Amino acid sequence: MGSTKKGKGQKTGKTGTILQQLARAPEKLFSGAFRQQYAALCFRRPKDGPGIEILVVTSRESGRWVIPKGWPMKRKKPFEAAAIEAFQEAGVRGKVRKKPVGSYTYLKVLDDGDVVPCVIDIFQIEVDELVDEFKERGERTLAWVSPDEAARRVREIELKSLLVDFVPR
Length: 169
Hints:
Blueprint: E1 4-7, E2 10-13, H1 14-24, H2 27-30, E3 35-44, E4 53-58, E5 65-66, E6 69-70, H3 78-90, E7 92-96, E8 102-109, E9 115-130, E10 142-145, H4 147-153, H5 157-165
Parallel strand pairs: 3-9
Antiparallel strand pairs: 1-2, 3-4, 3-6, 4-5, 4-10, 7-9, 8-9
Helix pairs in contact: 4-5
């Protein structure tokens, strides 16, 4: 659930803050100033049955369910950046597809409170290794779930559609 901050005369959750900022500066959505991010759609094939399981993680700030994602990295190709994010956020490694399997958009709240629209290219990773120690261990909750359950947990409509229809390539 979204957090609500209460201060002097202020009762605002993160969603309220985003909507308020966009109401004050709607050109942010239409100026073409989308920022790029890369995400990892991590999946595995369960040993005890058919189908696949998809990895979802909680975000550090709001605790909502997401897939691992982050900003571009110097001297790293987009698929490499997605794989690094998956390892840092969830301790998983595997075979990464070099071409995106899809994309989605969302509004990112930056550290300074500003809001920017982002386009996220998604790279598939078939996970074959899970480690116990990784950078953001203890900061996130991880769950392996069915594609339908992964779609139910995330908020972004475009990502929901991609998860429901996901077929490993």
